[in-house]
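User: Small ask, check this?
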Amino acid sequence: MTLLMTKKILVVDDESLCRSATSLAMQMIGYRVDQAANGLDALKRFISEQYDVILMDCDMPILNGIECTQKIREYETGTASRAVIIALTGSLAEDIEERCLRSGMDAYLNKSCSTEELQQVVQKWLVPL
């Protein structure tokens, strides 16, 4: 088993096409991938599973990505673990990157990024074994 195959990613996006495309790209690189259709689903999965990286959309119904990230960070308080959360959003808001980082996300990418850019950012945040 390769190192990548041991890494697990959660792709969170309310748009099924974006969620599927991102998941497929990450699987083709060699990661294990789960999906969540909104922040509430992502939070439930996070609590029951361990993920190396969470790719988080920002604009979602029920619980948006910023609120979900804040809840994940609250949940992690007092524990030794900290998930890597990367914003992957198509939001055009001027201050979206700043809001993402302020909420506790580790990095920000626009959905228009290439698979190579996404792979580079994900790999940057993964700690080698």
